[in-house]
Each structure stands twice: as structure tokens, then as C-alpha cells.
Amino acid sequence: MDSPLTPSAAWLPPIAITGPTASGKTAAALRLAQVLPIEIISVDSTLVYRRMNIGSAKPSSAERDAVVHHLIDIRDPFESYNAAEFLKDATVLVSEISQRGKWPVFVGGTMLYLQCLTKGIDEMPAVDLGVRAEVTARAAQVGWAVMHQQLQALDPVTAARLPPSDAQRIGRALEVVLGTGQTLSSLQTGRNRAIPGVLEEARIISLEPTERSVLHLRIAARLTAMLDAGFLAEALQLHLDPTLSPDMPAMRSVGYRQAFEVLTELTRQGHSPNPLLAKDRTAFFAHWHEPAAAATRQLAKRQLTWLRAMKLRHIVAMESQDAAQQVCDLALALTNPHSKL
């Protein structure tokens, strides 16, 4: 199929391919790259981290050779990366990609990032490292459920939209109110966006399940495939790194968080799994798989909740055998100025 895009048509605004975890976003994007001159901007808060490849389902070297990917492997796991940084980086990339005569395509399922792309973001106060240390230390003592209760007393609006398990965002909200005296909800008004959005909601293509059970089966299969691909060795290397702790944003990613918990308990028991031994992989899998699967299912549920609020998105049934082609067809329609989409 001939591409409808040429360097002179690089004014086309970006689109996004999104959906819950394990819905087939990468496959659809790679199919699109076969028919359109695109560059991919990752919308994934875990893919930014180096050394976190298997557990994040990071595109392979071959896939990244087939089409240019951005915002992958740009931070070490001990470093932070937030939504404001993402939107700034994405804004620059959209301009640069367009200037190269390519079409910028956002791909990924970090819904906070996707929302920033469509709505922009408010300017947030700088992090007070002293306050952050106090919040982290307190959470280590009492747990994040108690910290969520504290947030309810200080900023009930923000607390109401965060589950007690969302340590990263609870911690950030507490840092803001304790460090500035202002609630996060009062700062996130949407009236004066410090960084505007770069993506129209009507240009979002979302791969979603018609049957939740199919997604759950895919999640379980992906976790099994991760272990077969060497996830235990990857997790062990991270767990043994003295620069990393389970409270860091990278280590709170689904799959990695559960691996840290299992490996910490095994270490406490005096056992260090050997990824070369089948019995150790089996033992790790037995303790890790179901907690990781449950957390991934909850992540997918939250992602779908975010997506349902995006009323103008175009939905493709992820179970369809031709789902990737349907995404391509929609993307081609979005390049047509006379399209009614």
C-alpha cells in the first residue's frame, strides 16, 4: 500500500494508539509503520527505564530497528521521570518528527501521560527533598493505606480519586500539601495550563476488550512468557543493586514490585534463587505469578476506567483477528481531511 504521507504533508497532527496492558498496542503500531512513515513516541512510564526490559514488555531491538522509538531507555531505575517532563519531551518530539517529514504516533498505556497529552498540565511546585524523605520514612513505618488516610484529611478531593495502593501519587500529593500548604487539587484547576496538550482526543485509537476474560488470559500468558524470557535474572539484578529500593517509582511498577517482595522474602529466609535452575524459577513463579497477575488486572481495570472518560476515542476490539489492520485503517482515515471520523 502506498503511503498517503509525504514530507510536505508532515503538518498532520499526531495520533495515539492506546489501550490496557496486553491489548496489542505494539503490534498495531508496528503494522502501521509498514504503511505509513511514522516515528513512535512511547507513552509508558516504565519503558523510560534502562535495564527494565522483560518485565516492561519493552519493544525488542528488532522492533526498534524497524521503526524509530522515542522516550525509551532515557533514565536509570534510580532516577525519576514525571508527567510534566514527559509532556515537555513529547512536545519537542512532535515538532522534530514532523520536521523530518514523519508522522508522530504516541503508543502506550500510561493514562496520566495520555491525559496530559490531551489536556495539558498545570505547573507544579518543585519537590522539597526533605519533605519527600519524611513522607517516605513515615510510609515505611505505617504503610500507604495509613498515608492515604492522612491525605484524606489534608486533601480529600485528591484522596478520593486515588486508591490506597497508589503510593507514588499519594506520596506526591502529600509532598505538595506538606511542603507548600496548598493542596494538589487546588493547583490542578485546568484554568492556566503551564504546558498545553498536543493531542486531540478524537485522534486516539484504543484497543479494548469486549470480554474482560480474554484480557485476563492474555495477562496470564504474558507473565508466563516473561519468566520464560529470563525475568527472574532481570529482577535479581535489580534487587541486588544497592542504589535501588522498593519505594522508587521504577521499582513500584507492576511485576517488578511483586518480584521485589518475593525476592526480599526469599532473601530473609536465607535463599537466593538461581535463575539457571528450573526449580528456582518454578519456586519464584509460584510466589510471584498470582500477585503480579492480580496487580496487572487491577492496572488494566484502571486503564479502562480512564479510557471510558475519553468519549471521542475510536475503539477497536482487541480480540479481533485483524485488530492491527483495523488500527491501520482508522489511522489512514484520520489522515483524510474529508473523513467524518
Q: What features would you describe in this structure?
A:
With 341 residues, the protein is α/β, with parallel strands linked by helices. The chain is 50% helix and 7% strand. The protein contains 14 helices and 6 strands. The protein has helices at residues 25-33, 61-66, 83-99, 111-119, 129-142, 144-154, 156-160, 167-180, 184-187, 212-228, 231-239, 256-268, 278-308, 323-334, and strands at 15-18, 38-42, 69-70, 103-107, 204-208, 314-317. Helix 2 (61-66) links the parallel strand 2 (38-42) and strand 3 (69-70). Helix 6 (144-154) crosses helix 8. The relative contact order is 0.17.
Instruction: Using the alpha-carbon principal axes, give the shape.
Output: globular
Label the structural class.
alpha/beta
Q: How many H/I helices?
A: 14
Write the H/E string, N to C: EHEHEHEHHHHHHEHHHHEH
**Could you state the oligomeric state of the chains shown?**
single chain
How are the SSEs ordered, and which strands pair?
Layout: E1 15-18, H1 25-33, E2 38-42, H2 61-66, E3 69-70, H3 83-99, E4 103-107, H4 111-119, H5 129-142, H6 144-154, H7 156-160, H8 167-180, H9 184-187, E5 204-208, H10 212-228, H11 231-239, H12 256-268, H13 278-308, E6 314-317, H14 323-334
Short description:
By secondary structure, the protein is α/β, with parallel strands linked by helices.
List keywords for this structure.
341 residues; disordered N terminus
